[in-house]
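Target protein
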Amino acid sequence: MPESSAPPPVIRVGSPFRIDPPVVRIRAEAAQRMRRQFERGVMQFTYNGSLIASALVLGLAVPAIWGFPLGAALISGLGGFLAMFGLWADYPRLAFGLLVVHVCLFVFIFMKNFLTEPMTAVIF
């Protein structure tokens, strides 16, 4: 029983005429892959954060309907903008749901306050 202390020989796959890429090229490609993953990671955190912010802003917009309707319209517009960024987050269905809720809330506030009452009653 022979002892196999040496690693098994590397079996080359592919064309016998292909030249292996130099080490510098391999490292450059690895660095580019790492940079793409890093940049995607930063943007992914941004998208996830905007999704969370959209949900939090919804909690602020609903009580503002009765106290400050103009502010509630602005807040729901901001929430819709944040939800649009959240469409690229890890939970796009939740982001789409929040976007629909914010748009419906904005339309409700607009129809209730800006089309039925004079503008001075809404601001003051």
Observations:
- Residues 46-123 form one domain.
- The CA atoms of residues 54 and 79 lie 5 Å apart.
- The longest helix spans residues 23-67.
- The chain has a mean pLDDT of 84.
